[in-house]
Each structure stands twice: as C-alpha cells, then as structure tokens.
Amino acid sequence: MGIRAGLVTVVLMMAVIVSSGAFAQGYPDRPVRMVIPYATGGGTDILMRYLMQKVEANENWRVLIDNRAGATGVIGAREVSRSKPDGYTLLAGHIAPNAINPGDFVQPKFSPDWPLAEVALAAEAPSLLLVQSELPVTNVAGLKKWLRAEKNPTYGSDGAGSLAHLQMELLMAMPGMTHIAYKGGGPAIQGFMSREVPVIFSPAPVAMPHVAGGKFRIIAQTGSARLATLPSIPTMVESGDKEFSAPLWWGVFAPLGTPDDIARRWNAAVNKALADAAVNKWLGDQGYSARPMGIKEFSAYVAREVERWNRVAAGIKQ
C-alpha cells in the first residue's frame, strides 16, 4: 500500500512539472493585458503603447492596453498585484508606484500593499522644469526668487506622491505653496498648457511635443547630462541643485508567483525590442533612453531606487 501511494505521488508530481512546462511553452495562447496605471497621453502611456507594438510584431503576441489611472499609479499597480500570476496580466510600471509611493511620501495610506515582481526595465527619461512664457524667469535661481516673492505660489504635478511632486518640494523646501495634483502626466501638461499653473516638472516625452509652440519656457532638466534634442537646456546639477540627477524610469512588472519562464520570455522580448535601431531613434527623439537589463539586475535597480526615495522622503518630512 505504501509503495502504491508513493508511486501515485511521484506520478502526480511529474504531471505537475510536465503541465507547467507545457503551459510556459504554449504561452501566450490569448491576449496579454498590459495595465497602464495612468491616463492616456502621459509618459507611461506613450512609451508602453509604442514598445508593446514592437513586442507584438517581434513575438507574434497580442497585447491589450488597459489604462487604469488614479492615486499616482497605485490603483493600477494594486489591481495587477492581486491578479492571477499566469502571465496574462502585467503592469507598465513607473518610478512612482514602484519606488516612491512605497516610501509613504505624502499620504500614509499609500502603504506598499501591491507587491510585484520585476520583469524588465524599459527606459529612463529626465523631467523638464517648465514655466509659463510670460513669467520673468529664465533659470532655476530666478524661479526660486519669483516663487518666494509670490503671495500664494502654485505649481502642478502628475499626482500626489509623484516624482514631479517630490521634485518641486525638494526644489523649494518652502511651506505655503499650493499643489495642484493631476491624474497623470497627460492631464498635467494639458493643465499647464491651459495656464492653470505657472510652473511644473513634466516628463520629457510628455512635454517634447509641445516645445515647438513656444508657449512655455524650459529652464532646466533633471538628467545627468544634456539632451541631444535640447542641447541648450542645462541640467539641474549645472543649475546649482545637486540632488536632481534623478531620471524617471519605466518597466514591466508581474504579480508575485508568475512562472519564471514567462518572466524570462518577457524580459527577452522587451530587451529585443530595445535593441532595435529604429526603436532607439524613436526613444531619443521623444526624450527617452533605452535601458535593457536582466531580471536580477532590474530587481537590484528597483531596490536601490526604493531606498533612495525613502531617504529623500524622510528628509522632506523632517
């Protein structure tokens, strides 16, 4: 009886292993839902829609984009974290829900109860510091002087607890400023273009399409080096603020427990798309830069970012 039971156990274990392998080999046999936790027209939406088109073409997969905006990316991130870990629901991750909000920067209710597994880093991009063209401001020092002279200074961002929110708090370190929090980079740049706020940090890919109109002034950007597409715009470090070598970043995340084989296939698919010369040209023209890396390297990257922004947020709270 014991021998028979043992044989049954072995057979069942082998069946599980075989079925798991078959599942991974046959993946995907239906469309994959890519949740973008922001509104259309923002940096995450622009990048991931383009990149997923390349993945679809290269891999013969079908990827359905699903925008789930709200709470600076947390609503979408939380939904994905609670989804079945079968590789059919993924997150277009971003620095805010995946590195800044876990630090409980602005709202304690944003505790990190949306655990996710890192799959692939896609790209980085700087933020551009924008001011309305009619403001008597041409550089960062002039902006600080102007804001301090205003009775009720106002600024916008793409959400409470977003990188743009954090950047402005770091820049001014000044109480009494009114913060207008939009639901993503797209709505934020539209609000700025409608002159609802005088100053804003905006992701380069979101602001770049509006540069030619001459309706606003770019006085600095947060990258570590000047952009080839905007060579006359100084970095924040060059402008005297050493804390601002801080790019935004985007990547693909999956629910915890997603099979390793599927995660590896997605990592390879994203990296293959990023290796394409035409993709790199498009990224550069939009203000992004490709950052292909393996899963372990991406996990370490995210861990460093969480630690970094925890420290920054703690310093602001003091």
Please name the defining characteristics of this protein:
318 residues, alpha/beta, D-Maltodextrin-Binding Protein, domain 2, 2 domains, six-stranded mixed β-sheet, three-stranded antiparallel β-sheet, 11 strands, 43% helix
What does this structure look like?
Strand 6, helix 6 and strand 7 (178-181) form a beta-alpha-beta unit. The model is unreliable at 7-12, 14-22 and 103-111 (pLDDT under 50). The protein has helices at 2-25, 43-59, 74-81, 95-100, 140-149, 163-172, 185-193, 204-207, 260-274, 277-286, 295-317, and strands spanning 32-36, 63-67, 89-94, 116-125, 127-132, 154-157, 178-181, 199-203, 216-221, 248-255, 289-290. The chain is globular, with a radius of gyration of 22 Å. It is an alpha/beta fold. The protein is built from 11 helices and 11 strands. It folds into 2 domains: 30-125 and 248-317, D-Maltodextrin-Binding Protein, domain 2 (3-Layer(aba) Sandwich), CATH 3.40.190.150; 127-244, 3-Layer(aba) Sandwich (D-Maltodextrin-Binding Protein, domain 2), CATH 3.40.190.10.
